[in-house]
Specification:
The structure holds 3 protein chains of 3 kinds.
Chain A: H1 2-31, H2 39-57, H3 61-82, H4 92-114, E1 130-133, E2 136-139, H5 140-162, H6 164-174, H7 176-181, H8 186-207, H9 209-212, H10 218-233, H11 238-258, H12 265-277
Antiparallel strand pairs in A: 1-2
Helix pairs in contact in A: 1-5, 1-8, 1-10, 1-11, 2-3, 2-4, 2-8, 2-10, 3-8, 5-6, 6-8, 10-11
Chain B: E1 5-14, E2 17-27, E3 32-36, H1 43-51, E4 58-63, E5 66-67, H2 73-78, E6 81-83, H3 96-108, H4 122-134, H5 150-162, E7 168-172, H6 180-191, E8 198-202, H7 206-212, E9 215-220, E10 223-228, H8 230-235, H9 237-249
Parallel strand pairs in B: 3-8, 3-9, 6-7, 7-8
Antiparallel strand pairs in B: 1-2, 1-4, 4-5, 9-10
Helix pairs in contact in B: 3-4, 3-5
Chain C: H1 8-23, H2 28-50, H3 59-74, H4 81-103, H5 108-128, H6 130-133, H7 158-180, H8 182-192, H9 196-199, H10 204-230, H11 240-253, H12 259-278, H13 280-296, H14 301-315
Classes of the chains: A mainly alpha, B alpha/beta, C mainly alpha.
């Protein structure tokens, strides 16, 4: 029984991480209608940045997280302004090809600088080990992870619901032309949301090295998972992504634990089944 | 005599917004019926409900004796109900002849033929060219649709509908964007259609409406305000107030 | 409208692989692979270039065809090549038919995910069923019988090359017929005016099911062909890399042009063979950069560029 709880918890932690990274993708697809297959690359570079800071400069793990968020977010803003913006109206094929191209370039660059192998991560002592919660042994690191993601989600919720910027975003998501007509600088909203999304991805990449692993093929390996979360949850929704990520996390961890011979097969099957049942995603809006 | 078209209590609701509320309409075979109303009255939504491109929240649609409410758009076209779009919805990259030929082939079932070249289907090609001739588009047969001027594109829009040989033709602002001098031509073509073709058209140009419509239905705010002959409609006080009155003041 | 008659440029195009047979006898093995992949690219062009379906998992059908032919030969002792080829096509067609119902519904994103998911699903299945497929090590031990009882597969690849070329040519002729037919016109109609098609009475869903099934069948035959000519089937036949590279080939050559797919496949594979041998990391980087540049700058790929050159030549 305790192993079941343990597995569930691990699944939730995994899902929380996926949620954090995929959130940016959900926003991009829901807000700008842009299929960004290169989203995983931002997460990857966040991870590599954290590793570099820790090994080269001795920066403590927890400090690397906000740095990753800011740096990768800034990079995202630049990319959006310079490149992505030109393709907002482009066909899905063009968007797919473009972002696959960026992905290949990112993987090649990462391999060139850091080699193809897994990056080691040394967690600070206070995050290692386990702690007993209600009689079940849970990993400290994973507890930290879940708590961190919850805090970030609450902050995001506040940002979207309580600030003026948040209301601008909601207006732009609902009806872009109307929002522009109201005087909302839609292009600035896009840049900021893109930066926020990629920043969160970078943050997730740094945060999750121990759980997801980090090597130069990260963007391709996990691309499916991020897309899955967005497709199943419904693009443009926060709670949709959260629900989808948790389901995905639990099924993946449980699947690998109880039925290891099936591997990732369960996840892909689950995805196909869910997409048949909910073509617009669990919480998707039908345009 | 069975009505050519019968809409019964058609309703379309999105959340708190009712685009169409309990709209009923009956058209006799061969009718020339206009649907007018201010912008946002729900006229295009009504057409979308009739054709099946929008599922109704409530209500039924009958084409002759057949209940078509559950049928898909293309199935209704096969039964004889065709529409045109308010905004040109054409095959941008195809030539004019290819576009019309495609519509003809869909009707005759030739569209499933994968073995012979399209050019060798002489019967369909001849029919397409004939249709282009009636709309004075034959000189543009080889022009790619997106290179045509707007007015000609509007004619292609109508040609595509006519190629399906409809029994019921739903026209959404057919003259929109066509220079005033040429709108009469368009309507002359439509007037020249066989008398057993039923036509329902949305129009804002009142002159054209009064010239070609035998009966008029006025829609406001998603509901039918009234239906009647052109005289009845133009003399009705409510209609004047809501719609025609504004036009006269303008 | 196209009359369907073969233009001189087309005949010249098909003489090139024939010439290669005599001019590059040492490269026939690579040549057979290029021909098989060209067939694969052709099948993608049908759904991508003509019907407008963006698929990230077309390798699923390629892999099914490859493993069908591979298993028939290596595990179940069936060595007759033509029937194994047909079997690969049939299995892939069945899968394509089933998958098509998922692919024709939903938004662009859903479609992308479903096609991607099916590819990955099959990859995982093949990986885990190592007892059958050889897993990561791949399926070897294939042996081909004689084609029509006459031509045997030699080590130098002569038979394989002619075999591949013949299959490609036959299927190309059939696809070309299809493209110029009213059915082909309706595919272009779906691509150019998705919203208008139902309004002229076209059963769009059934058209897409039909073309997707046909494309899957051809991809399956291509996979079986590659398996037979290389006598090996690796897991990579199902990989996302394959699907992505295939899309690149078609777009590179020019989607919706038929010849573009073949040209793109040939150019891509020749360049890849040359460059990735030198340094795979470079290859991946420049490939990525090429994609980005292509989307931002070039329209219509190689065929588009050839068209522009031809137009300029005519003006002189």
């Amino acid at each position: 029984m305790s192993s079941l709880v343990g597995v569930l918890f691990d699944g939730v932690a995994y899902g929380a991480l996926l949620f954090l990274i995929s959130l940016g993708l959900s926003v991009t697809m829901g807000l700008m209608n842009f299929i960004n297959l290169a989203h995983g690359a931002f997460a990857m570079f966040g991870g590599y940045l954290a590793v570099w800071l820790m090994t080269r400069w001795g920066v403590p793990f927890v400090a690397t997280l906000p740095i990753a968020f800011v740096v990768i977010g800034a990079a995202g803003a630049v990319m959006e302004r310079v490149l992505y913006r030109r393709l907002y109206g482009a066909s899905p094929l063009d968007q797919v090809l473009f972002t696959i191209g960026l992905t290949f370039m990112s993987i090649a660059a990462a391999t060139w600088f850091w080699g193809p192998s897994q990056q080691p991560v040394i967690l600070p002592a206070w995050l290692r080990g386990q702690v007993s919660v209600l009689g079940v042994d849970l990993g400290v690191y994973r507890l930290f992870l879940v708590a961190f993601v919850i805090v970030v989600s609450v902050l995001l919720r506040w940002l979207i619901e309580r600030t003026r910027f948040g209301s601008q975003v909601r207006a732009a998501v609902d009806n872009r032309e109307a929002a522009a007509g109201l005087g909302i600088r839609v292009d600035r909203v896009f840049t900021l949301m893109f930066a926020l999304g990629t920043g969160l991805a970078g943050l997730g990449g740094a945060l999750g090295i121990d759980v997801l692993g980090l090597d130069s093929s990260f963007p391709l390996k996990f691309m499916v998972y991020f897309l899955l979360v967005v497709a199943v949850g419904g693009a443009g929704t926060i709670h949709g992504a959260a629900v989808a990520a948790i389901i995905l996390g639990i099924f993946d961890v449980a699947g690998k634990y109880y039925v290891p011979q099936a591997g990732a097969f369960i996840i892909y099957l689950l995805m196909v089944v869910l997409l048949i049942a909910f073509p617009a995603g669990l919480f998707g809006r039908r345009h | 005599m069975t009505a050519a078209l019968r809409a019964v209590g058609l309703t379309k609701v999105w959340g708190a917004f009712a685009a169409n509320s309990d709209v009923s309409l009956e058209l006799a075979p061969g009718a020339r019926h206009a649907l007018i109303g201010p912008n946002g009255a729900g006229k295009t939504t009504f057409i979308n409900l009739l054709t099946g491109s929008l599922p109704p929240t409530k209500g039924e649609v009958f084409l002759g004796e057949t209940r078509v409410t559950r049928l898909t758009q293309h199935e209704r076209v096969k039964l004889g109900m065709t529409r045109t779009f308010q905004i040109n919805t054409l095959f941008e990259g195809l030539t004019v002849l290819e576009s019309v030929m495609l519509a003809v082939c869909e009707r005759t079932g030739a569209a499933w033929d994968w073995r012979h070249t399209a050019a060798s289907r002489t019967r369909e090609a001849a029919e397409a060219m004939e249709l282009l001739r009636t709309l004075r588009l034959d000189s543009e047969a080889a022009t790619i649709t997106r290179q045509l001027p707007y007015g000609k594109q509007r004619l292609v829009e109508i040609a595509l509908a006519l190629a399906t040989r409809p029994k019921l033709l739903l026209l959404d602002e057919p003259a929109a964007g066509i220079p005033a001098a040429e709108t009469g031509e368009v309507f002359a073509v439509l007037a020249g259609l066989p008398a057993d073709v039923t036509i329902l058209f949305i129009e804002h140009d009142m002159e054209l409406v009064f010239r070609f419509a035998e009966r008029i239905t006025v829609m406001v705010g998603g509901r039918v305000l009234m239906s009647g002959t052109p005289d009845e409609v133009s003399s009705d006080a409510r209609v004047r107030e809501v719609y025609l009155g504004d036009a006269q003041d303008a | 409208m196209e009359t369907g008659r073969w233009k001189p440029a087309e005949i010249a195009f098909w003489l090139v692989p024939v010439a290669c047979y005599f001019l590059f006898p040492g490269y026939l093995v690579l040549g057979s692979q290029i021909l098989a992949v060209a067939l694969f690219a052709l099948s993608l062009d049908l759904i991508l270039g003509y019907a407008g379906i963006v698929s990230l998992g077309h390798a699923a059908f390629f892999g099914l065809g490859a493993y069908t032919a591979g298993l028939l030969s290596a595990r179940w002792g069936w060595h007759e090549p033509l029937s194994a080829l047909a079997a690969g096509g049939v299995i892939a067609a069945a899968a394509g038919f089933l998958a098509s119902f998922l692919v024709v519904r939903g938004s662009d994103l859903t479609r992308l995910m479903v096609t991607l998911g099916i590819g990955l699903l099959l990859y995982e299945a093949a990986n885990k069923a190592a007892f059958l497929t050889g897993g990561v090590d791949g399926l070897s031990g294939m042996a081909n019988g004689k084609i029509l009882g006459v031509w045997g597969f030699g080590l130098r690849g002569h038979t394989a090359y002619v075999y591949s070329f013949t299959i490609l040519l036959i299927l190309f002729v059939l696809v070309r017929r299809l493209i110029h037919s009213p059915f082909g016109l309706s595919l272009r109609g779906i691509r150019e005016g998705r919203k208008r098609m139902p309004a002229i009475g076209a059963p769009v869903m059934w058209r897409l099911v039909a073309v997707y099934t046909v494309a899957a069948a051809i991809a399956g035959i291509a996979g079986a062909l590659l398996a037979q000519t290389t006598q090996f089937v690796g897991l990579d036949v199902f990989s996302f890399q394959r699907s992505a590279e295939l899309m690149i080939m078609v777009v590179l050559g020019g989607a919706g042009r038929l010849y573009g797919a073949i040209l793109g496949a040939a150019v891509f594979m020749i360049v890849q063979d040359y460059l990735s041998g030198i340094n795979p990391v470079y290859w991946q980087f420049w490939l990525g950069l090429l994609l980005v540049a292509m989307v931002l700058l070039a329209r219509g790929g190689l065929m588009g560029a050839l068209d522009a050159l031809a137009a300029r030549a005519k003006r002189r």
